[in-house]
Design brief:
Organism: Anseranas semipalmata
Protein name: NADPH--hemoprotein reductase
CATH class of the largest domain: Alpha Beta
GO molecular function: flavin adenine dinucleotide binding; FMN binding; NADPH-hemoprotein reductase activity
CATH superfamily of the largest domain: Flavodoxin domain
Strand content: 15-25%
GO biological process, one term: response to hormone
Number of domains: 4
Largest sheet: 7 strands, mixed
CATH architecture of the largest domain: 3-Layer(aba) Sandwich
CATH topology of the largest domain: Rossmann fold
Shape: globular
Keywords: Endoplasmic reticulum, FAD, Flavoprotein, FMN, Membrane, NADP, Oxidoreductase, Transmembrane, Transmembrane helix
Number of strands: 23
Length: 677
């Protein structure tokens, strides 16, 4: 701005000098002086301005270097990199365990988030001696990559790289109840080989519907011997406990610098700034929380979250993620059992100064905040946690029991399965049942996994409710084999979110995750929606949207719903709303299965069979889109098998042809699933 102003100021005298030949010597002298001064100033100024440019160039170079995991590995003497594609934190946890294992074999490992690095550098990994890339890849949704592995997945699809010098191994995390079991792990394994990389150990397929921890341990105990054989190395000793973080207790700290539950930026809950996402959730006010069921033991609820002024946009079929908090009574018990002041302000600092992950959760914070908002204290702990904690058991029998459960022996696996997994013992229950086990609370906080966001299918349409997101959920509560009452973290936390309680707002940290579960582009396309129980949630949004489209004068195709619940007068969710939509003609068919109102159980698949001719006509002649939401383990599978039967019968096809027909519907986006197990 200064240079432009200066040039504008001197332009008239220069122009005048060319036109007027009757200037005095004084005028000429003054003009020459001004011109000289300007010339000196101009060049002097340029030199001064060039100086700050140099750091910018260095910064770009620095950023490029930071995004290179190769440079980082060379700098820190690592030769094994373990990438993780993780949605709930389990794949990241497995990656950390594998990277820590490496030291036993005279190797050095590092866990890495593919989102933070340039994966095209994989072709350069052979520059490092005895190098290996391991991939712990979870599959999310219907065969999709996790959010942090999306860029890596896109690169793999488009890459034409020569990875002939790369040695790799893949462990996939999936769930057999889903249609595309371990799709991401299988794809990464296959694609790396296609690009010329050398697989040094077979693909591992973990199944979360069975025992994911056991699957991982079994794969891991065979993986390391294969690594040893390939590189000609031997184990240097037994597995040992190595702390990853060091404790720093803050006795004199500015409380404005202490995290109180924020997921990312300090004070982000006090000073909210869009865009809102997993690292920067929006604090939504709960404006409604009502019980949906009329009777029964369960508590089914409808919540409404106000997203006014958040700039959050959503579409019918998207998911809302909420960050819950652990029950304060459980948190307090940790303080009592471990004899710790939970309000102590502390930091856990990574001992590896080169690591991108400086802390296991936001620090500095208090133990109370960490146990309430950041750590998972209600799920059964994995075997590595038991192994690390065993050293603190003063009773030898308890120590041996913990070590045995953490071992890879058949007896150890069976004991872990029965005593921890099937008994649903969380870390608090283990501390209660092993009186001599009293670990330092900071080590416990280091070992526990992060408390994850919970996803719910949005039960509203943004066309009708642009400033609100609706949730439909059922509280989880059950008695374990040990007689303890276990409660679902998020659903019980949401249950207690009463609007305007004691004159203050009930707030829910949330963000929206986009989904592929979408209404057809043409409103005239028929839809068949199948969603028993809380699987009704996205269809409430779909029906609201179809009603809105009809009000706008659009031609709306047949809208068919198959809904199921236990009893008509107990847990028939959104009964009045559905009846109204049906009466208004928006919902052209309302088929409801009450499973326990008669001697023989009736489910949604039975109603589909009953209406099979109409179903076939809608699908084959009307090009209807099919949507299934709810339980993946039984319902979704039974519904899919029913469609195979209908297609085979009315399409005059063999079983394999009918299967191919339904699979093609899925490929074309005409058969969509939003299921959970």
């Amino acid at each position: 701005m200064g240079a432009d102003g200066m040039e504008a100021t001197i332009a008239p005298p220069e122009s005048s000098a060319q036109q007027d030949s009757f200037f005095s010597m004084t005028d000429v002298f003054l003009i020459s002086l001004i011109t000289g001064l300007f010339t000196y100033w101009f060049f002097f100024r340029k030199k001064k301005e060039e100086i700050p440019e140099l750091p910018k160039i260095q910064t770009v170079t620095s950023l490029a270097r930071d995004s290179s995991f190769i440079e980082k590995m060379k700098k820190t003497g690592r030769n094994i990199v373990v990438f993780y594609g993780s949605q709930t934190g389990t794949a990241e946890e497995f990656a950390n365990r594998l990277s820590k294992d490496a030291h036993r074999y005279g190797l050095r490992g590092m866990a890495a988030d593919p989102e933070e690095y340039d994966l095209s550098d994989l072709s350069r990994l052979s520059e490092i001696d005895k190098s290996l890339a391991v991939f712990c890849m979870a599959t999310y949704g219907e065969g999709d990559p996790t959010d942090n592995a999306q860029d890596f997945y896109d690169w793999l699809q488009e890459a034409d790289a020569d990875l002939s010098g790369l040695r790799f191994a893949v462990f996939g995390l999936g769930n057999k109840t889903y249609e595309h079991f371990n799709a991401m792990g299988k794809y990464v394994d296959k694609r790396l080989e296609e690009l010329g990389a050398q697989r040094i150990f077979e693909l591992g397929l973990g199944d979360d519907d069975g025992n994911l921890e056991e699957d991982f341990i079994t794969w891991r105990e065979q993986f390391w011997p294969a690594v040893c054989e390939h590189f000609g190395v031997e184990a240097t000793g037994e597995e040992s406990s190595i702390r990853q973080y060091e404790l720093v207790v803050h006795t004199d700290v500015n409380m404005n610098k202490v995290y109180t539950g924020e997921m990312g930026r300090l004070k982000s809950y006090e000073n909210q700034k869009p865009p809102f996402d997993a690292k920067n959730p929006f604090l939504a006010v709960v404006t409604e929380n009502r019980k949906l069921n009329e009777g029964g033991e369960r508590h089914l609820m409808h919540l409404e979250l106000d997203i006014s002024n958040s700039k959050i946009r959503y579409e019918s079929g998207d998911h809302v993620a909420v960050y819950p908090a652990n029950d304060s009574s459980l948190v307090n018990q940790f303080g009592e059992i471990l004899g710790t002041d939970l309000d102590t302000i502390m930091s856990l600092n990574n001992l590896d100064e080169e690591s991108n992950k400086k802390h296991p959760f936001p620090c500095p914070t208090s133990y109370r905040t960490a146990l309430t908002y950041y750590l998972d204290i209600t799920n059964p702990p994995r075997t590595n946690v038991l192994y690390e904690l065993a050293q603190y058991a003063t009773d030898t029998s308890e120590q041996e029991r913990l070590r045995k459960m953490a071992s890879s022996t058949a007896e150890g696996k069976a004991l872990y399965l029965s005593w921890v997994v099937e008994a649903r013992r969380n870390i608090l229950a283990i501390l209660q049942d092993m009186p001599s086990l009293r670990p330092p609370i900071d080590h416990l906080c280091e070992l526990l996994p992060r408390l994850q966001a919970r996803y719910y299918s949005i039960a509203s349409s943004s066309k009708v409710h642009p400033n609100a997101i609706h949730i439909c959920a059922v509280t989880v509560e059950y008695e374990t084999k040990t007689g303890r009452l276990n409660k679902g973290v998020a659903t019980n936390w949401l249950k207690n979110k009463v609007p305007n309680e004691n004159g203050s707002n009930s707030l829910v940290p949330m963000y929206v995750r986009k989904s592929q579960f979408r209404l057809p582009f043409k409103p005239s396309t028929p839809v068949i929606m199948i969603g028993p129980g809380t699987g009704i949630a996205p269809f409430i949004g779909f029906i609201q949207e179809r009603a809105w489209l009809k009000q706008q004068g659009k031609e709306v195709g047949e809208t068919v719903l198959y809904y199921g619940c236990r009893r008509e007068h107990e847990d028939y969710l959104y009964r009045e709303e559905l009846a109204r939509f049906h009466q208004e003609g928006v919902l052209t068919q309302l088929n409801v299965a009450f499973s326990r109102d008669q001697a023989e159980k009736v489910y949604v698949q039975h109603l589909l069979k009953k209406n099979k001719e109409n179903v076939w006509k809608l699908v084959n002649d009307g090009n209807a889109h099919i949507y299934v939401c709810g339980d993946a383990r039984n319902m979704a599978r039974d519904v899919q098998n029913t469609f195979y039967e209908i297609v085979a019968e009315y399409g005059n096809m063999s079983q394999s042809q009918a299967t191919d027909y339904v699979k093609k519907l899925m490929t074309k986006g005409r058969y969509s699933l939003d299921v959970w197990s």
